[in-house]
Design the sequence.
């Protein structure tokens, strides 16, 4: 008679043994798939992060602010001031001729050859875009209250503002022609495509001019990373640092740059910063 | 289902060579018929070869039983390894000459030459791979006289192939190779064997799935299948005696567990 119990034990042992390879394969597959699951997605987004953090999010943050400031002019002030200052317009219409239209062509001179064709095109387009700068600060508070704007209203608003400025003393009014944030965005888009340091330098300069020192710092840094021999980029970089209250850092950066390049402009800027002329 | 059926079913698969247990399978029947036809031809020697457990001995036994009624045939299932003893046995069986002393090849050839047999006797030698090379050479010379026809079975190994080449290359011949069964043949083999013993209930237990599992362990080898099924019904008996048949799912189908247990018991699985 067979010893069934012993045979069953042996059978159980055999079954466990036969399942071991399957278990090992399954476990290893799970481990591999989990590793792949965590490694591959984490690698891909890091590249995206680099591009997005540097360029896209900050544009998105900044864009609405300007638009809102423009729109506030439409909603709040025009209506009020139109009513109040109808009379002065008729009186001092001659002062319209005293308005200063200053197309900023400085950046054009500074642009490098690679970016010039585009810049000229944008310049041509920009001739139709005229913005009013001095009142933007005063409109900051209303922006929170009136975020939605229509284009038709903007047209009205520009006219109104011009009227308003006529009323005020001429020396205080300065209407400057400027590249909008859309232009910068367009250039950033181009920069992302061809990685041309001239474009990123241009963006840095424009941001600096707009007073967005954080962004100008960022783009100057990007430019330096691409090409560390561009003097203007280092200067914008140092200036932005000073504006961001990182004077020591700016001095340190300039010194190291001067050491390697012997740049006169950088030397002058360094002296200005250290002496407190440039703040 | 009574216990006697398991006992009967188990005994069906006892590893015994008996021509009555011979199971007719299409392919095997064809081979058998070709073997019978070969014997009728004026061939000096017929070689039957195959792996152990492919049914060579059964073939030879069956052939012996079938031919014994119509012609002179001698079956030697156990090899006679001593040369003198081999000649003496043949002299006594074929020529009815008793030889008390040593009988060498020359003396035996004289006996063969002087013989006046009407028909050529057929000598069936099983497990011929156990014979020495010298004796095999002498058997070849004997077959050359066309006084005795030999049918020999060999295990198919490298060594046996060598024997075949060296000794029989220019002689013979008819060579018949026996192989393991296919899955379908194995199912027929098992069921026919059981039904021959009137074990219809147990025969019905062998579904395609069960036979596939058995084939996996035995690779269609008849001897291994017999051993496995013997162990299987032995396990069934043990479960029945312990009143545990219900724990293995009754008797409608052979569970895989039992087949594996039988394979472990017979050594087909290393557990």
Sequence:
């Amino acid at each position: 008679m067979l010893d069934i119990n012993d045979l069953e034990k042996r059978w159980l042992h055999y079954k466990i043994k036969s399942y071991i390879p399957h278990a090992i394969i399954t476990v290893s597959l799970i481990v591999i798939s989990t590793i792949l699951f965590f490694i591959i997605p984490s690698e891909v987004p890091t590249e995206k992060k680099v591009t997005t953090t540097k360029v896209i999010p900050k544009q998105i943050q900044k864009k609405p602010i300007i638009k809102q400031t423009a729109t506030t002019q439409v909603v709040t002030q025009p209506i009020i001031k139109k009513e109040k200052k109808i009379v002065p317009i008729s009186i001092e219409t001659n002062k319209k001729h005293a308005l200063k239209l200053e197309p900023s062509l400085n950046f054009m001179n500074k642009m490098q050859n690679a970016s010039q064709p585009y810049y000229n095109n944008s310049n041509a387009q920009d001739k139709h875009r005229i913005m009013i700068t001095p009142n933007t600060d005063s409109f900051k508070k209303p922006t929170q209250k009136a975020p939605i704007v229509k284009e038709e209203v903007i047209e009205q608003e520009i006219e109104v503002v011009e009227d308003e400025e006529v009323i005020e003393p001429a020396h205080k009014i300065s209407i400057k022609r400027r590249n909008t944030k859309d232009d910068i965005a367009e250039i950033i888009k181009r920069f992302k495509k061809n990685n041309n340091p001239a474009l990123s330098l241009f963006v840095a300069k424009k941001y600096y001019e707009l007073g967005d020192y954080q962004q100008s710092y960022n783009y100057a840094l990007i430019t330096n990373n691409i090409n560390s021999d561009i003097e203007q980029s280092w200067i914008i970089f140092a200036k932005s640092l000073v504006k961001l209250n990182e004077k020591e850092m700016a001095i340190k950066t300039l010194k190291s740059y001067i050491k390697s390049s012997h740049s006169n402009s950088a030397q002058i800027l360094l002296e200005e910063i250290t002496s407190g002329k440039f703040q | 289902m009574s216990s006697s059926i398991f006992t009967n079913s188990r005994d069906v698969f006892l590893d015994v060579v008996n021509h009555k247990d011979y199971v007719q399978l299409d392919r095997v029947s064809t081979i058998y018929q070709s073997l019978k036809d070969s014997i009728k031809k004026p061939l000096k020697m017929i070689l039957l070869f195959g792996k152990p457990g492919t049914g060579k001995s059964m073939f030879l036994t069956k052939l012996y039983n079938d031919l014994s009624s119509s012609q002179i045939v001698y079956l030697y299932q156990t090899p006679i390894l001593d040369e003198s003893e081999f000649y003496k046995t043949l002299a006594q069986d074929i020529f009815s000459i008793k030889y008390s002393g040593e009988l060498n090849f020359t003396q035996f050839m004289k006996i063969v030459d002087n013989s006046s047999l009407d028909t050529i006797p057929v000598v069936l030698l099983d497990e011929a791979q156990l014979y020495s090379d010298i004796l095999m050479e002498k058997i070849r010379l004997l077959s050359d006289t066309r006084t005795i026809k030999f049918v020999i079975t060999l295990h198919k190994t490298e060594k046996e192939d060598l024997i075949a080449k060296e000794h029989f290359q220019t002689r013979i011949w008819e060579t018949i190779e026996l192989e393991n069964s296919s899955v379908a043949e194995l199912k027929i083999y098992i069921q026919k064997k059981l039904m021959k013993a009137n074990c219809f209930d147990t025969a019905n237990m062998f579904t395609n799935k069960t036979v596939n599992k058995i084939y996996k362990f035995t690779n269609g080898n008849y001897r291994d299948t017999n051993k496995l099924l013997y162990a299987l019904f032995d396990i069934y008996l043990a479960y029945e005696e312990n009143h545990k048949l219900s724990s293995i799912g009754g008797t409608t189908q052979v569970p895989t567990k039992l087949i594996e247990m039988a394979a472990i018991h017979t050594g087909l699985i290393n557990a």
About this structure: Residues 13 and 226 of chain B are 5 Å apart (CA to CA). Chain B is about 55% helix and 10% strand.
